[in-house]
Amino acid sequence: MPGHDPQQPLPPIRVPAFPLQAHDGLLWLRPASSGAPLPPALALELEPAQRRFLWQAQWRGHVLEVMENFLDALHTHYVHAGWLRRDGQRRPTEVELQVAGDRVRVDYRGQPAQSGLVWRLFESARSGESAHFQLPGSTRLQYDYRNGARACVSLHFSPVDARNTRILATFHIHGRWAPRWAVRALLWPLLAHVGRQDAAILAAQQDNMDRFPGRRPARMHSDVLRPLLEDWWLHGRAPDPAHARELTLWL
Ligand SMILES: [Fe+2]
């Protein structure tokens, strides 16, 4: 307060202060004075030196729908047909869903190759593929390779309102030659195209939900993460270990 008489009491004006921490190119703020540590373990597990780029966007759709879109592997065959996978080449894949505390992990086993352009151009035989979710809004798709390399696409979600969601993303590569300029010049244009396909299908889905208010989307047993995401985003409930299971999906 410029010019304020130091002998006079300050007016009772306060600015709220919140815990804030910078990590790996992102600022983590919790709009409460106490709570879980920042940032989430899902972000802390990745080495900042391995980060290839940051990206941000705002997509139409409730945060629940946008998160499920990113974590769901089964839509990639037709929404990203040819780019990530092809619908005519689905095979039975062993899937395991694990729940531990505020984290959920889905492993897809037995798919060393993926039937799309991105895999053919940039990847090699995989030893594992997994999708991760940690409360409140962090996710990661992790690809492990037989040569010891690993690639991680992390998306952190923040609701703007009931129909729009903000996304902050990082892309990490560990254990293989992949300089940032090469990733940006060669891989990023393909990933950006895939992202636009997701944004378009989510916007179309939101249009349909607005057109038919009150109608609930159909749910199948293959929507493995949907119940957990609904528990958190619609009911404020932490992941229930009772959802853990093993099943076969055509991926
Ligand atoms: Fe997608």
TrEMBL record:
Signal sequence extent: none
Record keywords: Oxidoreductase
SUPFAM superfamilies linked: Bet v1-like
Coiled coil: none
InterPro entries: VanA_C_cat (IPR044043)
Gene3D superfamilies: Naphthalene 1,2-dioxygenase Alpha Subunit, Chain A, domain 1 (3.90.380.10)
Superkingdom as given in the UniProt entry: Bacteria
Annotated ranges, domain Vanillate O-demethylase oxygenase-like C-terminal catalytic: 60-223
A GO MF label: oxidoreductase activity
Name assigned to this protein: Vanillate O-demethylase oxygenase-like C-terminal catalytic domain-containing protein
Species annotation: Stenotrophomonas koreensis
